[in-house]
Every structure is written in structure tokens, then in C-alpha cells.
């Protein structure tokens, strides 16, 4: 059988124009293959022997150049079969990958939404605190205005007239506010409520009927016209606000100036003082000049360092004020303050990029630091000038007192003493004003901290109440579960007890039934035995009668 297989393969190979390369272990196939070739047509064919030590032990086919006779084969046989399992596996893998990507996108969306809600909640808390602070400041300023008007109205007829004019002006402002609220603000809220009601009524209608579409078109038109009118009103209000701010700046320049100005040189009060020692006066003036030059150089250096950093473009006064107000709302000790600030800034200035906001923040911080240093330098300068003036007045007074009996008359000494007293009173008044300002600032800060503490206590109380309510609910839930479990166990015990009783009664009934069936069986068996005995006796009696009859009718033959 091993030699017949190579012969058959050789014949098939000759008919198809290919040569069979025999295996190394096949010895008889070469001779048989040459015989078949010479008998088939005599075409010379080169036989190729496999190299020695080749790992291919099977028979190999090689093209020999002989034209093949193509058998009649259907077209579907020449096509490669589809690997459906492989294709289905790839499709399933792609589908699972898409599902994983969809889950990842959904998780990313949910995470982004939660983060956005957390940021909005923190912004809301900060704005509530700022709103309380602004409301407190508004009430405080109104009380101060009323107190000043009341005090000024008690000074005389002019003060009463001014008080009446201011009260009339305040009443006019209140009337204008009420008129604006009634004719501009309230209609907007009414329209908002009507639109919500209309949307709620037509929320489930898909598609909308023609009447609803016409109403929707009319509503869009009315809202567009209303929005245009409100935009014009807002622009007019902004323009009026800017005009009023400009008028205030022009009318009260020293009160709206960013920093106070210090007059250089020797004060006129010092020139009016009589100094008996000219050298002392020159030394004091030289000391004041050196003091002014020192602080002037320090201010010049600060301004030079500040001028090196140019302000980023694209920021007007209103945007700068809003930027500064947003940064002031968030306390310095707030966790993640920078993240919250930039999130709020990106929401407030959507047309600004993150780089523009960061560059302006850097410039603003540097500028604020420069202003603080400049303000401190000016305060130190003013304090040093006042100290110099007090020291100069003291030294001049001492010099005057030492030379009063020789060079000055009594009236001149009194006049100089009066001037010194006036200067001393001014200094004392300045000190009192500064102390009052410091106390007011401390009081404002304490009230602000108190209001913030009250808000935090309310939030803590709400959170504690929520947690206590959750604990109570959890305890009630646990008690309900324990009660339900106990009732279930009791019901199970009752059912088991009932089952035991039923089983016991059933076993008793079964025993009685078995006993009854046994007695009935024995009774039936006894009755059947008696019946059988009776039948046997009847049969025996019948046989006896038959025997008697046979004996009576028996034929006797001789």
C-alpha cells in the first residue's frame, strides 16, 4: 500500500503538467515516474531532487512548463472561503472597544459635569458672602449719610435747607427706582414666568400644531423686540453711570485720587516761626531737604521698576475694575483660590484667553504690590515730615524760651506760643483722625468676619442637621429591618409549629387509617373465607344431591 500511493500521485501530476518530487525515503517512485513520462509523450522534464538534509519530508509540486488540462471546475471552487469566525471575532472586539470608549466618554462627561457643579456651588457661596458684605456696606453708608445730614441740619438755617434738599433728592431717587422696577424689571420677570408656563404646556406635544407654531413665532418676535429694548436701556444706564463717575471725578478730585500728594519743601508754618538761632533753622531745613530727597529717590526707583512692566493691552477701565473686584471676592486663605478665580474670570471674560488672563493677573499683582509699597512710602514720608515738624517746633520753642527774655517781647512770645499750640493741636487732631480711621477699619473687618462666621455657622448647622437626619433615617431603617427580621422569624416559627401540628395530626390520622384498613382487610378476608366455605358446602351439598339423583335414575341391566 505504501508503493501504490506514489504511483497514483505521479500519474495525476503528469496529466496536470507538474512534476512530483519524491520523498527521500521513496526508492521505487523515481523509476516508475520515468516510465510514465516516456509513455505519455516523451517531453523532456528535468527532475529536481531535494537537497540532502532538507526538512521537507513530504512530496512537493513544482511547475514544469507542461500545459495543464483545466478540468471543469465551478467558479465558486476557485474562491477562497471566508473566515467568518475571524471576522466575527474582529467585529465583536471592535464593538466591545466602542462600548468601552462610550463608557469612558460617559464617565468623562459625568466627571466634568460634577466638577462644573462643584465649582458653581463654590462660586455661589463666595457670591453670597460678597452680597452680604456689599449689602452691609450699603446700609452703613446710608446710615452715615443720614447721620451727617441730621448733624448738619442742626447747625442752622443753611443746614436745614441743605437737609431738606438732600431729603427731597433721596426721595426722588427712591421714586425713580420704584418706577424703574415697576416698568422695566417686573415685566421682564412676568414674561419669564409666562414663557416657562407656555413651555411647560407644550412640552409633550411632538410635533407642534400650527397654532402653537404661530404662537412660538410671535413669542420669538416679541422676545427679540423686548431684548432689543432692554439692550438699549442697559446701554443708556452704562453710559449714564460713566457720565456720573466722570462728574464725580471732576467735582471731587482729591477724594477720588488714587494716592495722596505730599507737598515738598519747608512748610509755611515753619517759616512763620521766629528762630533766634539761624544755624539751627538752617540745620532743620537741611534735614528736611535730605528727608524729601531720600523719599523722592525711593519713589523714583519704585516708579522706574514699575515702568519696566507694560500693561497688557485690551483692558478698559470697566474690565479692570471687574477683574479687581473678582480677585478681592475670594479670600487669600481659601483652598484652591487660584482655580476658582480663573474659572470665574473665564466665565466673566469669555473673549479673553487663559494667557491674557494670566499675563494681566501678573501685571495686576505687580502693580498692586507697587501701589502698596508706594503708599507705605508716602505714609512713612508724611509721618517723618510730621515728626520733623514736631521736633523742629519743639527745638525752636526751646530756643525761643532760652532767648525770650533777651530778644523777644512778651507779645511776640505769646504769638509764637499760640502758633506752636495751633501746630500741636493740628498734630493731635491728625493723630486722632488716623486713630479713628484705624478703629473704623478694624470695626469693619470685625463685622465682616462676624458676618462670615455667622454664614459658616449656618452652613455648619445645616450640615449637622442633615447628618443628624440621615443618622435618624439610618437608625429607623435599621430598626425597621430588625423588626421585619424578627417578625419574619416569628412567622417562620409559627409556620413551623403549625406544620409540626399538622404533621402530628396527619400521622395520627394515617395510623388510624392504617388500623382501619387493616381491620377492614381482615374482616373482608374473613368474610371471603366464610363465603368460600359456604360455597364449598353448597357445592358439596349439590354434589351429594346429584349423586343421590344419579343413584335414583341409574339403569339396571341384566
TrEMBL record:
The keyword Coiled coil applies. It comes from the Eukaryota. InterPro entries: CCDC148/CCDC112. The keyword Coiled coil applies. Residues 21-31 have a biased composition (Low complexity). Residues 15-59 are annotated as: Disordered. Keywords: Coiled coil. Residues 420-552 form a coiled coil. PANTHER family: COILED-COIL DOMAIN-CONTAINING PROTEIN 148, MUTATED IN BLADDER CANCER 1. This is Coiled-coil domain-containing protein 148. It comes from Stegodyphus mimosarum. The lineage of its organism: Eukaryota, Metazoa, Ecdysozoa, Arthropoda, Chelicerata.
